[in-house]
Write a structure and sequence with these properties.
With 302 residues, the chain is of the alpha/beta class. The protein is built from 12 helices and 9 strands. It has helices at 11-17, 26-35, 47-56, 58-68, 87-106, 135-138, 149-169, 187-197, 208-213, 218-224, 254-264, 284-300, and strands at 6-8, 40-41, 43-46, 74-78, 111-115, 173-177, 202-207, 231-234, 269-272. A 9-stranded parallel β-sheet has the order 2-1-9-8-7-6-5-4-3. The longest helix has 21 residues, at 149-169. It is globular and about 55 Å long. The model has no long low-confidence stretch (mean pLDDT 94).
Length: 302
């Protein structure tokens, strides 16, 4: 089995089965990730229906985790509605967030993870069910004319501070994941948001591919965020579009990246986050196996 710090991210199952993959088949996903040799895995609850299905199956899933000898250090609670302009919707999303924290605690997680806040855009229909709010998706979005930024910001800060307090009640940290089109997705933006929220358990999940494509220097990010990062999503990127490539298929300088991690004394988890329909990964299993073997050989055994 691979080192427990190497995590098979949920993107593995998403790439195989679509977004979101059926929550009622989570036990199968666990078996597949364990069969590749992973002892640590990531799971997700994606919006209300998917999250509540995981909640319904939570005890069966927890039993499966134990039976397979797995660890789930982080559980993703994906709730873009937390940044809604509607106070009642935010309250509903916070209630769902608490269900996610219950799941995470049952699974033995250290923290919960979500994308950084989505600006309170309005779309022709509901918020699109997509992993990345790229330029194509955002072209149909707009901000209402009658809102003020000061009010948007105050609501965001209050909501995420409340979410941090809920997570803390369950002994969890709350991790912001960077992605194109979101607030608090760069090093500077996250630090600004963290200073406003004022909660010690608010953390940042560094994502090598997503930050590389927005020109957020990875080594400088590691140095500036060394006290804020416990979990890193690892995949390569060519620098021109959002994609999560196999290690070595992009332009990230991994020698510099890991030298910097060693320099700051990083001891957290490394989540292999390869794939997605935006990425050319013809051999998914091979990409995950090669990346895990490479991490274990070149980084964790040094």
């Amino acid at each position: 089995m691979f080192h427990e710090r190497i995590v098979c991210a949920y993107l593995y199952s998403i790439t195989k089965y679509g977004y979101p993959p059926k929550a009622e088949l989570t036990e199968r996903y666990l078996e597949e990730m364990q069969s590749l040799g992973f002892s640590s895995v990531e799971l997700e609850g994606i919006r209300e229906e998917h999250l509540m299905t995981v909640y319904e199956y939570r005890h069966r899933i927890a039993d499966k985790i134990k039976k397979l000898g797995l660890a789930v250090p982080y559980f993703c609670v994906v709730l873009p509605g937390l940044s809604s302009l509607d106070e009642r919707e935010r309250e509903k999303q916070l209630a769902l967030f608490e269900r996610g924290c219950e799941i995470a605690q049952l699974f033995g997680a250290r923290g919960v993870l979500d994308n950084a806040p989505l600006p309170p855009y309005q779309f022709p229909a509901d918020i699109p069910v997509v992993r990345h709010y790229n330029e194509e998706v955002l072209t149909s979005a707009f901000l209402p004319h009658d809102v003020r930024w000061e009010n948007i910001w105050a609501a965001l800060v209050e909501t995420y501070a409340h979410a941090c307090d809920i997570a803390a009640k369950y002994g969890l940290s709350y991790h912001m994941h960077p992605a194109e089109g979101l607030l608090a997705s760069s090093t500077d933006a996250y630090l600004y948001f963290h200073d406003a929220v004022k909660r010690d358990n608010l953390r940042f999940t560094l994502d090598t591919a997503n930050q590389f494509v927005i020109r957020d220097n990875l080594s400088l990010s590691i140095m500036r965020l060394k006290d804020h990062v416990d979990y890193i999503h690892i995949s390569d990127n060519g620098g021109k579009k959002v994609e999560h490539l196999a290690i070595g298929d992009g332009r990230i300088r991994w020698d510099i990246f890991f030298e910097t991690l060693n320099r700051v004394g990083f001891k957290g988890h490394l989540g292999l986050d390869i794939g997605g329909d935006e990425s050319a990964v013809p051999d998914l299993d091979g990409a995950y196996l090669a990346a895990a073997e490479w991490l274990q050989r070149e980084y964790l055994n040094t």
